[in-house]
Each structure stands twice: as structure tokens, then as C-alpha cells.
Sequence to fold (366 residues):
Amino acid sequence: MRDDFFLPALREQLAVRGCPRPAARRILREAAEHLEDLELTARNAGRENPSAEAAGQLGDPAVLAERHVSALRLASWWGRHPLVGLGLLPLLAGPVLWLVLLGAGMGGGAWLVIQLGFGGSSNAFSLAAGHPAVFPWLWVGTRMMDVAALALTTQLFCWRARRAALDRRWLLPVGAVLSLQGLWLVARLQPHMFSILFALPRGLLGQFDWARAAIPLLITALHWTGARRAVDPSASGAARSGDAAGSSTLFLHEN
Amino acid sequence: MAKTNPSFLNGVPELLVLRLLSRRAMYGYEIVQEIRLQTNEGLTFGEGCIYPYLHYLEAEKFVRSRRQEVGGRSRNYYELTAAGHKRLARLTDEWARVATAVAALMGGQHA
Fold:
């Protein structure tokens, strides 16, 4: 009888622990090949149920998944230092990253401003913003670049957290810090003036621009939903203590 | 035959895996079997646990892997890198010092 339980169970356990897909694919391929080898050995030895025996030798899928995910976390700087990478770094590097992304986006705007004949000087944006026909387009463009830069910054940190197979709770500081940044750091375009400043941004109706602060929260919420939580905490405990049958790393045999 | 997982074996798997891979490239199943055979079944590696270990060693750049087909079957073969050879030399040296020190103490106890 073929054992069809082990690989789907391992796939599920890797998924609930937030194992990135490329890593999961590799783990499953190697597990399938190992199963094949164990099964062949058991069959050659004339065992009754080689498939089930092979799966039993590989160990508990939940424990193995936990070990794989722990190894993934240890293998990356983000996994080893989540507090620095996802708690402090968004605070320090978040605004810088936002400015870089915004600058890259505004490069396209600068090209447009030059093409429209406002020159290439440092105040070309302000001059263009003073033109009644150009201002609405420039305002929309600035707004879009601002939002895109904030969204991309959040996306980059969330992506790092998920690539390191970290628990989804680490998405919370990313969302909180970048949301606060979204509330205070803003690119603003007014007639005759383009500025990047620390201020409470105002929305269309003159109220605080809560929509801007909601962007990082929305993105982290999407990642939170995508990164499912382990459903079997007892398995995690067993993996940490290494006491699950067949799943300890190295055994000493007693004669 | 009973199996135990004493805590003093921590660190030994890395030494064994690096030592085996210093001789030739191997895949996961092969490594587990070699440990069992070459220690006269005194030590066995948990079958599924070899892969998290190998992936960790690969991330640390002590080993590298490549896909290779042997006898019509494709497997991930692992081999030692230059950093892996250095790591093995250091671990072997540490192991020799620990083994000598423990042997000295145990010898003294039995004397």
C-alpha cells in the first residue's frame, strides 16, 4: 500500500509555518526522493508495507517542517535579527527608502516638466506647479508617486520577513512604524511649491490623511492573511525539544 | 537496540556531515546511510533531519549543491566548499582537544 499521507502533510505543515514557496518546493522534492530511496530499501528487504515504513522513518511532518523553518530563519540575517530588521530598520531606513523610491518616480516627472518647457533648474517643479493647466496633473502624479513609494517600502520589509520564514507577528512592527511614517512624512505639491516635509498630511477634505497612514497597514494585513499561522503548537514544542520519534538529529545506539 | 539522543552530541552532526562530504559529493539519503555504516551502526542520523542541516550548511556557504543524475535517478548532491574545508579543519581540531581532555579525565576516574 502506498503512503500518500507524508508529502501532503509536510507541504501543509510548511505552508502553515510560512515557509517560502521556492524553499518548500525544494524541501518536498528532496523528501520525495528520500522516501523513494527508503521505500526501495524496505522493498528489497522484503518488508510488508515499504511505503508506510519509509514515511515512518522520515519522521513527523510537523516536526520536520518546524526544523526546516528554523534552519531557514537561522540562515538569513533577517531571520536571526528580526527585532533590528523589522522593528528598528523601518524606523531608520524607512524614510530613506521612501525618499529614494519617490526620487526615482519623480525622475519621470522631472523629465515631463523639462519636456513641457519649464527648464531643468531646481525650482522647475515649483514653476510647473504654478501653471494652472499643469498643476492638477502634477498633483496627481506626485500623489501617486508618494503612495507608490510608501507601498513599495512596506512591501519590501514584508517581503524580507516572509522570505526569512518569520512568524507573521513580525509584520506588526513593520505596519505600525511605516504607518506612523505615512502619517508624518509627506511629499506635498501646492501651486508654486513642491516640498517634502515632516508634517501631518491633509487629505482632500482638509482632514488628516488617514488613507496615507492606512496604506502600510493594508499591505501588512494582506501579508498577515497570506502568512498562515501554525495550527499545531504542540508540534512546534516537540520540534524544539527534538523529542518526536524518528525526528531527532543524531542518535546514539545502546547495545 | 535502544536509541538515545544525549545532549553531548550537539555539534557532532556537523562534524560528521562535513567529514563525509570532504571525501566526495553525496546526497541526503547517502549521507544518512554512510553515517550509520561507518560508525558500525553506533550513530544514526534522523532520516528527515539531514535536509534542514544541509540547507543550513549551504546557507553558511560550507557546502554547495548541484542537481546530478546517476543511474537514471536525479538527486541533489552536496559537496564541500573551501570555507567548508576550513570549518572542518577547525571542528576536527576542537573535537580532538575535547576527546583528549575527556579521555584524560575518564582515564583518571577509572585509575
